[in-house]
Fold this protein.
Amino acid sequence: MDSDDAALLRRVGTGDRRAFDVLYARHAPWLVLRLRRRCRDPELAQELLQETFLTVWRAAAGYREDGAVTGWLWAVASRRLIDAHRRIAARPSTVGSVAPEAVSAWSPSAEDEALAGSYDAALERALHRLSPELRAVLQATVLDGLTVRETAMLLGVPEGTVKTRAMRARRELREALS
């Protein structure tokens, strides 16, 4: 089956299991690698991969062909990753248990690790002073290469909010570095 990704996704939306299998075989390898770069736990990465493709199976009929399927898949996977992070952070702690931050399954992304050595100290401090919302937009648009629409879908905010946050983040970085 040599269909392009958008055609496969349309077929998945109609319940075509064979098209789903092809889409999975085509995209699961790179997707699980990217998920593993974002979290230390390989079992969690596999679980997130399965959750991602379960979401794809359920939501394929609603996919609009206004972006690359790979970007949409990564946006779905990123959302599952964020949800998992929230679940881990929300776990109640018991007396004598270790704080979630101490046993977190999260590590810096490969991009963060690679770029950490190339940033000078002033830029690194400026990035860390940004609010989490602004850093999330920079992460999605700059490091992950998502479009404004994909970033909006990933973060669950309107596209205009993504644009505003990106502009504010750039302005704050410029001011901090000047």
Remarks:
- Confidence is low (pLDDT under 50) at residues 97-106.
- The chain has nine helices and no strands.
